[in-house]
Specification:
Blueprint (H helix, E strand, L loop, with lengths): L10 E2 L6 E2 L4 E5 L5 H12 L8 H7 L7 H6 L5 E4 L9 E6 L2 H14 L7 H6 L8 H8 L5 E6 H6 L1 H13 L5 H10 L2 H11 L30 H17 L4
Parallel strand pairs: 3-4, 3-5, 5-6
Antiparallel strand pairs: 1-2
Helix pairs in contact: 1-2, 1-9, 8-9
Bound molecules: adenosine-3'-5'-diphosphate (A3P).
């Protein structure tokens, strides 16, 4: 499936110790934007094996920079690498996944609560700047005009028509290597229901997970618009104040 393993050092990624090769593609997003889902789809597409892709195998196919250094080091090229970092000019090719900031913050809130890292109301949470590695609008702003971006995908479009979005991406990354049936199969193997089941059965258990929340931490609701169940009008104003321009740009408002 992959070209031969190469260990030569080319250049270093900004800040991280990992080596970046010129044929690397980065799957970049702000946290909670659907990265695991797209990673599953791609891993299902490019992995020639009868075995199911699960949370462990998807990490071995698409490791995260700064987190899975050992796996990255031994991965065959050309590699696909997950990243949540802000703009990095050293990433040779970037697929940027974007999701409505309001749903992102809702997803983040539940994720951190499930990890028992959070004990506050949603309103307090979205205003608490030091919880986040960066704000959504800073992340998106840092990437939006980057010249190394080869594709920008909206989570909401992936929800609406996953096969179309994946076939557009596949034609950019691999020309006509994958046919419609293969793309359909990869999308089907990465359905919300299936991923939720896999996470419940085989996902990495978080030792600090609250018993009631034990079901799933990554694959929670998988919809767009859940923010309407969480935002007060003041919360909405707060987010609009910092992110309206980008939300408009991506047709979220
Ligand atoms: P919700 O918490 O809103 O449900 P990330 O992987 O970047 O952390 O993103 C997590 C979000 O992607 C979660 O959103 C999760 O449910 C959603 N997601 C994961 N798998 C999905 C799938 N197969 N289909 C749709 N959404 C999915």
């Amino acid at each position: 499936m992959f070209a031969k393993k190469v260990k030569a050092r080319i250049f270093r990624g900004g800040g991280a110790k990992e080596v970046i090769f010129p044929d690397d593609t980065f799957l970049v997003s702000y946290p909670k934007s659907g990265n695991t889902w797209l990673r599953f789809i791609i891993a299902n597409l490019i992995t020639e094996t009868e075995d199911d892709i699960d949370f462990h195998t998807s990490i071995s196919v698409i490791p995260e920079i700064g987190v899975h250094s050992k796996i990255l080091e031994n991965l065959s090229r050309p590699r696909i690498i997950k990243s949540h970092h802000l703009f990095n000019k050293n990433y040779p090719k970037v697929i940027y996944l974007v999701r409505d900031a309001r749903d992102v913050y809702v997803s983040y809130y539940h994720y951190l609560r499930k990890k028992l890292m959070l004990d506050m109301t949603f309103s307090k949470f979205i205003r608490k700047q030091d919880i986040f590695p960066s704000r959504w609008h800073d992340h998106v702003n840092s990437w939006i005009n980057a010249s190394n971006i080869i594709s920008i995908i909206r989570y909401e479009d992936l929800l609406k028509n996953p096969c179309l979005e994946v076939s557009k991406l596949a034609s950019i990354l691999w020309k006509d290597r994958f046919n419609e049936e293969e793309i359909k199969a990869a999308v089907k193997s990465s359905s919300f229901e299936r991923m939720q089941r896999i996470e419940a059965e085989r996902g990495r258990p978080f030792k600090d997970l609250n018993a009631e929340e034990k079901s799933t931490i990554f694959v929670r609701k998988g919809i767009s618009g859940d923010w309407k169940n969480h935002f007060s009008s003041e919360d909405e104003d707060f987010i609009l104040e910092e992110a309206a321009t980008l939300l408009k740009y991506f047709n979220y408002i």
